[in-house]
Specification:
mainly beta; Immunoglobulin-like; 6 domains; 5-stranded antiparallel β-sheet; 4-stranded antiparallel β-sheet; 1 helix; about 0% helix; flat; FN3_dom
Length: about 600
């Protein structure tokens, strides 16, 4: 028998055994004859002689149970049971400790499922451990033996989709330096927070045997982009020697330890190009030059990188690099819209295989100073000429020509692509801006590679007639139809809850207006039609928002087509299958166009990911 202070596993009514309860025992606990200790209901019915086989001899636990509970799911920290609240009253569980019998374990009581619920999850358990569960029924029977459950390992599963490729760069002495780019997806079951990843690599000899040494590199989890299953993590492994073959694999690490390793991938580090492509530059005008090189028959494709050298100044949007991809059959390219007087760096790279790796010889980078005078533009004045309109003045301080054009960029969020307008005058009004917003504006000459002005900041004012902000039309999918969720945000002067909005809707060739007193509306949509919406405050003189549109797909065609950029120059295409179809198997034709070229259709079966 156990003292009352340790008899904590009170799991139900004392429906079998001696019903006399000593005044010193807890409710529904079994009293030993000495009246000096108490047993829980579980301990009485476990068929151990906890009371020297005296009072327990009258305990009739029956010859079996009324249906052993079923396990729905076992993880590394929880067990989910399928329990019928009409059968089970409650249950207890205990961590199994080697050398201790069931009566001496620390039992914890867990309430039964709420009426109507069919499952109960016991959480906060220890990974890779064994637990005993004992159940109490609403009837007079109790479980004769504990149910033993062994939890899963607490270590993370293996990282997914491991890919490796070779990168070649050059040191200051023009000697080649090889690195391996390792790309992977996060584990499907991390079982905790991933602290870092361990990248293993091992040399493989020509006879297929592996070298004794296994090298490791650690990559902190916060330094990679593996937060979601649709994103890839990547890193570079250095100190790789050419002419050798390596095995690569990877594992995730949590507080519990090193997880399961991924499948091994093999790579052979092949030497890159031994000689230069000998590129040359021919200047054709102040803004146009031609690059020529010696074509090599083993090259599958070329990549030309055009970068503009510019001074490092604060609050200036840098000129983006230009990438030009060419087939292996060409030996020249004409580059236009360069900035007169600018310094241009041109790098020629070659692709020798069918992959996405381009290799560059150190002599294949050229530097050229364009003729002419570098155009320089300054913003001279910003003047608000309305609540949501600003008059911008600017001028060229050097360079340019009498018919010089300018590109004005403006945005309320530098993280997204800015709007732009090309003008010939040195003053221009930006109108129909959002009310009460901070805007950035900058100007550059119409040549795309010319330096821009410094960023200027201005703030628009309150405007009761301003159009609503952030108008969005979201397509919603239902069992047998589609609907459109149209949402928007009130402009800063339209904060009243009684503000009414007028929605101008166009459906196919039809149109109509309706008003609502909210900042959102959901309505059923007809398939195979395009809906267009413009919204304004329902007062005279209020301005309409920019139009947003959504095309309702057919009920029998794939929907929600999205494209996700992966590493290199790869795109993942994802879609949802049709709502209703009797087809036993789907087949989808994918067509991709790039400029005037065309990728032939491909048929995909039994997959929703390409």
């Amino acid at each position: 028998c156990k003292p009352r202070s340790e008899a904590a596993a009170n799991v139900g009514h004392n429906l079998c055994g001696n019903t006399q309860v000593d005044v010193n025992c807890g409710k529904d606990q079994f009293s030993c004859p000495s009246k000096q200790s108490c047993l829980s209901f579980t301990q009485v019915c476990n068929r151990h002689n906890d009371c020297n086989n005296l009072d327990e001899s009258g305990c009739d636990c029956g010859s079996g149970t009324e249906g052993t509970p079923a396990i729905s799911e076992v993880t590394n920290t929880s067990v989910t049971w399928v329990l019928d609240s009409a059968i089970f009253s409650n249950f207890s569980y205990a961590l199994v400790i080697e050398g201790l019998d069931a009566a001496n374990l620390t039992w914890l009581r867990h309430p039964a499922p709420v009426k109507g619920e069919k499952s109960v999850t016991v959480g906060n358990l220890k990974p890779a451990q064994q637990y005993n569960f004992v159940f109490n029924y609403q009837s007079s029977r109790c479980l004769t033996e504990p149910v033993s459950v062994h939890l899963e390992d607490g270590l993370p599963s293996a990282p997914q989709a491991l890919k490796i490729s070779t990168n070649q760069e050059y040191a200051s002495d023009d000697s080649p330096v090889y690195t391996v780019q390792v790309t992977w997806k996060a584990p499907v079951a991390p079982r905790g927070t991933v602290l870092f990843y361990v990248i293993y690599y091992q040399q493989i000899y020509n006879n297929g045997t592996a070298a004794t040494n296994v090298f490791e590199e650690k990559e902190a989890a916060e330094d990679v982009v593996g937060a979601s299953s649709q994103q890839f993590s990547d890193t570079l492994v250095e100190h790789i020697e050419t002419g050798r073959t390596y095995h690569f694999w990877i594992a995730a690490v949590t507080d519990a330890g090193v997880g399961q390793p991924s499948e091994k991938q093999t790579i052979n580090i092949s030497p890159g190009p031994e000689k230069s492509l000998q590129p040359k530059v021919k200047v054709m005008s102040e803004s146009i030059l031609s690059v020529m090189w010696h074509a090599q028959p083993e090259v599958k494709g070329y990549r030309v990188t055009v970068a503009t050298e510019e001074p490092s100044e604060p609050d200036v949007i840098a000129v983006p690099e230009r990438l030009i991809h060419l087939p292996g059959s060409v030996d020249n390219v004409k580059i236009q819209d360069l900035c007169p007087g600018s310094t241009v760096h041109i790098t020629l790279a070659a692709r020798y295989g069918d992959g996405e790796v381009y290799e560059t010889h150190p002599k294949d980078t050229l530097r050229n100073v364009m003729s002419g005078v570098l155009p320089t533009v300054n913003i001279t004045n910003l003047e608000m000429n309305g609540a949501t309109s600003v008059l911008l003045s600017y001028k060229a301080t050097q360079g340019g020509n009498p018919d010089q054009q300018y590109i004005i960029y403006y945005t309320d969020n530098l993280a997204v692509t800015a709007k732009n307008v090309t003008v010939s005058d040195t003053t221009h009004a930006l109108s129909d801006l959002k009310a009460c917003e901070h805007y950035f504006v900058w100007v550059r000459p119409s040549y795309l590679s010319c330096p821009a002005t410094r960023l200027k900041l201005f703030t628009t004012q309150e405007d009761l007639n301003a159009p609503p902000k952030d108008v969005k039309a979201q397509l919603l999918r239902h069992k047998d139809h589609y609907s459109v969720n149209l949402t928007w945000a009130a402009s800063c002067g339209q904060t009243s809850l009684n503000t009414r909005y007028s929605i101008k809707m166009k459906r196919g060739n039809e149109g109509g207006d309706f008003t609502v007193q909210s900042t959102g509306v959901v309505f059923e949509a007809m398939p195979r039609l395009t809906y267009s919406f413009r919204i304004r405050v329902d007062v005279p003189g209020a301005r309409l928002s920019d139009p947003v549109s959504v095309t309702i797909p057919s009920l029998s065609g794939p929907i929600n087509l999205i494209m996700l950029r992966e590493t290199g120059h790869k795109v993942v295409v994802r879609w949802d299958w049709p709502l209703k179809s009797n087809w036993p198997e789907f087949k989808v034709s994918l067509m991709c166009r790039l400029s005037k070229s065309k990728v032939h259709p491909s048929w995909i079966s039994d997959s929703d990911t390409l």
